[in-house]
Design goal:
Length: about 300
């Protein structure tokens, strides 16, 4: 398989779309011929004229679209089938390190139904590859590798026994800059803004409440916005953990503000101011430590 264009990636539905060329070689001694002088060395056939393998992409969400094909025969009976296609396929994603994740998108190819007994996949004579063109990659993804393997698996279309299967694996890595500049940096600024209450006098409770509530609502709004671009996962992602950290620290600032105000209401103005001064150093230090631990934990998942 030659991958011509990585068209689309949809994390919500866990689907991707590719354009490619599927190349199949086999030997059919019945079609061997003696080329005549001056005649073409290759003979062209249509699918109705000769036997050819009927191969299906079993994880396609709908039948692949064929944009053209050729069946060529050499004098010794060596056959070559080339098909240009587009296909939308489903593949399970592992988004725990999102948005610093790498994904393995797989294309499973099996013979269709009764053709299993006539086909055994061998090692490809030519390597599968990704065409190195500017339009091949998506802006948000980097293609890292394109590998092929073969195995025996249960027939996807029913039947008994095992069916030969080829697996093409496209390894891609997300370009995270969009999320760094559009999510992580704004969230950190919002959290930093919530800490400005530590520099406001404990007597000015109204302005402290205004800042605290506004920053908390901003973090919640960011969370709703990003959740629309992800599937409903049963596990925590890195960006989820960072959101929770931001919630906790903004909420912590609100708790600190409430305690300081309560101390002032009790006439302990000095204790309230000391709490504010202590929080100026404690909150940033704790935030850096927790965020660093989250990054190390989820990036280690990606490496694994």
């Amino acid at each position: 398989m030659n991958l011509l264009n990585f068209e689309e990636m949809d994390e919500v539905s866990e689907r991707f779309r590719i354009d490619g060329a599927l190349i199949v070689d086999w030997k059919d001694s019945r079609l061997a011929f003696q080329p005549q002088p001056g005649a073409p060395r290759l003979r062209h056939y249509t699918p109705d004229e000769v036997w050819h393998p009927n191969l299906q992409m079993v994880n396609a969400t709908r039948p692949r679209e064929s944009h053209g094909y050729a069946i060529l025969a050499e004098p010794d009976g060596a056959m070559h089938y080339i098909e240009f296609f587009s296909a939308t396929l489903s593949s399970a994603l592992y988004l725990a390190p999102f948005p610093f994740d790498s994904e393995r998108l797989q294309v499973y190819i099996q013979p269709f139904l009764g053709a299993d007994e006539n086909i055994a996949f061998g090692d490809p004579d030519r390597p599968s590859r990704v065409v190195n063109e500017p339009y091949t990659e998506l802006a948000s993804w980097r293609i890292m590798d394109f590998k092929v393997s073969r195995r025996s698996a249960a027939p996807a279309f029913g039947g008994f026994g095992l069916s030969p299967e080829m697996i093409f694996t496209l390894v891609i890595q997300r370009r995270p800059r969009f999320y760094v500049w559009k999510v992580f940096v704004p969230l950190m600024i919002i959290v930093l803004t919530s800490w400005t209450i530590f520099w406001i006098s404990t007597a000015d409770f109204y302005n402290q409440v205004t800042i605290a509530v506004t920053t908390l609502l901003s973090v919640i709004a960011f969370g709703f916005a990003i959740s629309q671009s992800l599937p409903k996962l049963g596990y925590l992602t890195m960006i989820d953990a960072f959101f929770i950290t931001c919630y906790v620290f903004v909420f912590g600032a609100i708790v600190e503000m409430t305690v300081a105000y309560s101390l002032r209401r009790q006439g302990r103005d000095g204790a309230a101011e000391r709490l504010h001064r202590f929080s100026r150093g404690l909150f940033p230090l704790a935030f850096v430590i927790v965020s660093g631990a989250i990054a190390l934990h989820f990036l280690a998942m990606r490496s694994g």
